[in-house]
Amino acid sequence: MTEFSWPIRVYYEDTDAGGVVYYANYLRFMERARTEMLRAIGFEQDRLQQEQDVIFAVHSINASYHKPAVFNDELTVISHITDLAKASLTFSQRVQRNHDRQLLCSADIRVACLRASRFAATAIPAEITQRITAEYC
Question: Tag placement on the chain: N or C end, fewer CB within 10 Å?
Answer without folding.
Answer: N
